[in-house]
From TrEMBL:
This is Sulfotransferase family protein. Residues 96-130 are annotated as: Disordered. Coiled coil: none annotated. InterPro entries: NST/OST. Pfam families: Sulfotransfer_3. The chain crosses the membrane at residues 29-50. Keywords: Membrane, Transferase, Transmembrane, Transmembrane helix.
Length: 570
């Protein structure tokens, strides 16, 4: 028996085919031009092909189940697992426009409607215990990358040598003068600060909150991704020093890459709203790309070379919540974007995690069982492994929760540039950015005010936090509440959560060690709000004159005509 759907497809197909102008003598325009005729036929074939593929797709549910797992009508939640561990399929989300989230909520409903309608495919279940057993095979304490970090944090006084030599060596200005912060005309057109990460920890909310400030001009879009390795054109932006050049591996990342500063600046300049920036001499701009913290092997040095004045903000979130949010985000994205054909997100959460653990293992970042001591990683090996892991378009969901490692590497690079991470890096937690006004989730005014004050500190008095009071709360909502709209809450199993808490515990402890306060250890469930560095007033007071000049957003640049920096980037 032919289905209704099949009937409608064939009616559609035949109606198109009968309309194809095959006749030679009918004087039809298409009939006279064979090329146009061929193109028309190709178009129809492709269109029909796409249509039938799309209509044959079995929509998927939260845990990879065909949709019997989700009962939207009665709102019940079912936890299920898929037995469909499919390899090598990638969802690329790097260009996701945050503004799209709210707008496309109607797509959510379309996808979820399809989900509830589809009940015919058989359910495939996999034993949860077996998955938990597989997860338990990975013990983070034994990982090379964890050992690396332990060793690094144990040697508290690392010697970074001559820091200005480091800049000269690795920041290629292509014949231009090195202009310090505050003397750099280009600085007006460049980001004054950056939100580095982490993904799924509230960067969109913060981004929209900050853009409400009268002196803060957003970049052309959230997530410029210019320094992200997916976009990074190695030959253009980074040059390996000749001693290290490997003709077979252009993407070899090593500690000797030279940054082509001017080339990056030329590209970066195009990404900001120059008109708005130049109109108001006090306005500054910023880039919020949560990918940057994760891409430390490629992003840290170019950012510090190119924008030596830049301030950096990192928002953290309990790594298990972050991971879970990431998974659901990809699921939703898949539904929204008609990615139903991609089997990637048919994976259950546990399978998705295991896949990523396997990727990390493949890259030598972790191992099961215990690594022999010969597997000790040095920085170069860790950078290369991390780079390979992050470069395979898999989103690297598990590794993103290694906050201590990522922050440590950023701090190390900042020190190599002769700067103190306490002066230019601020770390906050999403858990402390959660506030409620009239039942709506907002970033608390006090935290936002302090952050803005720190970001815009320019030596001439700070900007009052009242500027941000007019922040449009609905903008936050748009980026939060649409998340769980029509689909109903998926459920993270208790056992999986327990395993993940245990899994991240050593990294969480390292984080507390790195930031010097036990409160940062997510495992210890801190109750007080955490901001790093803890005492901003003390830091500002103790800053040397040289260091404080790095804070200047170069609002009123006073450069003598004969100063080479005057002519830079006219
Ligand atoms: N103020 C406030 N209070 C509480 N929760 C908040 C807030 N701002 C953002 N969020 C939650 O952060 C998650 C989205 O993070 P991002 O905007 O960084 O996502 S993205 O990386 O830009 O895609 C997303 O988490 P999940 O809902 O768990 O997915 C948001 O709900």
């Amino acid at each position: 028996m032919r289905s209704k759907r099949g009937a409608s497809v064939s009616t559609f197909q035949s109606s198109l085919l009968t309309k194809i102008p095959f006749g030679r003598s009918n004087g039809n325009f298409l009939g006279k031009f064979p090329c146009v005729r061929v193109a028309y036929i190709c178009f129809i074939v492709v269109a029909l092909g796409y249509r039938s593929i799309w209509m044959d797709v079995a929509p998927i549910g939260w845990n990879g189940e065909e949709t019997s797992a989700i009962n939207k009508t009665n709102g019940s939640k079912t936890e299920t697992f898929s037995a469909d561990p499919t390899e090598n399929n990638h969802i690329i989300v790097e260009n996701l426009d945050p503004a799209d989230d709210g707008e496309s909520s109607n797509l959510h409903s379309t996808a979820s409607d399809q989900i509830t309608q589809h009940t015919s495919a058989p359910s495939r279940r996999q034993d949860e215990s077996e998955k938990i057993h597989r997860l338990h095979m990975y013990e983070i304490n034994s990982w090379p990358v964890q050992n690396y970090l332990e060793r690094e944090l144990a040697s508290s006084h690392q010697n970074f040598g001559n820091t200005s030599l480091y800049q000269q060596k690795y920041c290629n200005l292509q014949g231009r003068p090195w202009c310090p912060a505050g003397k750099n005309k280009w600085q007006r057109r460049a980001p004054h600060f950056m939100i580095l990460g982490v993904k799924k920890a509230g960067s969109s909310s913060l981004y929209f909150a900050l853009t409400q400030h009268p002196k803060i001009v957003s970049a052309q879009r959230k997530e410029l991704l210019l320094f992200s390795q997916k976009r990074f054109l190695f030959n253009k932006y980074l040059t390996p020093t000749s001693a290290q050049r490997d003709p077979h591996d252009k993407h070899l990342i090593n500690t000797t890459h030279v940054v082509n500063v001017q080339t990056i600046r030329d590209d970066l300049t195009k990404r900001f709203r120059l008109g708005d920036l130049l109109k108001d001499s006090q306005a500054v701009s910023f880039d919020a790309t949560p990918q940057y913290i994760f891409d430390f092997p490629t992003a840290a040095r170019p950012i510090l070379c190119t924008c030596p004045w830049v301030k950096l903000v990192v928002i953290l979130r309990n790594p298990v919540d972050r991971l879970w949010s990431h998974f659901n985000f990809l699921k939703r994205l898949q539904m929204k974007s008609n990615f139903g054909r991609s089997p990637t997100m048919k994976l259950s959460f546990e399978d998705w995690v295991i896949k990523d653990l396997e990727r990390m293992e493949k890259r030598g970042l972790l191992s099961k069982p215990l690594p022999p001591s010969s597997q000790m990683m040095d920085e170069q090996a860790m950078m290369q492994s991390w780079h390979d892991y992050t470069a395979d378009f898999s989103e690297g969901p598990v590794g993103r929760g290694f906050y201590a490692l990522q922050l440590h590497q950023w701090m190390k690079e900042i020190r190599r540039f002769g700067r103190d991470p306490k002066h230019i890096l601020k770390v906050v937690r999403l858990e402390d950015l959660k506030g409620h006004v009239n039942g709506e989730s907002v970033i608390p005014q006090r935290i936002l005010g302090e952050l803005v004050e720190w970001l815009l500190q320019d030596g001439r008095g700070s900007v009052s936090s009242q500027h941000v009071q007019g922040t449009k709360k609905q903008v936050f909502r748009q980026h939060m509440d649409t998340r769980y709209d029509k689909l109903g809450d998926p459920v993270l199993s208790k056992r999986t959560r327990e395993w993940l808490d245990m899994f991240y515990a050593p990294q969480n402890k390292m984080l507390a060690k790195l930031l010097g306060d036990k409160g940062w250890d997510y495992g210890s469930a801190p109750s007080k709000p955490m901001v790093w560095p803890a005492n901003k007033n003390a830091i500002i007071k103790n800053m040397s004159i040289e260091a404080s000049s790095l804070f200047l957003p170069s609002m009123e640049i006073d450069i003598a005509m004969n100063d080479p920096c005057y002519h830079e980037n006219e």
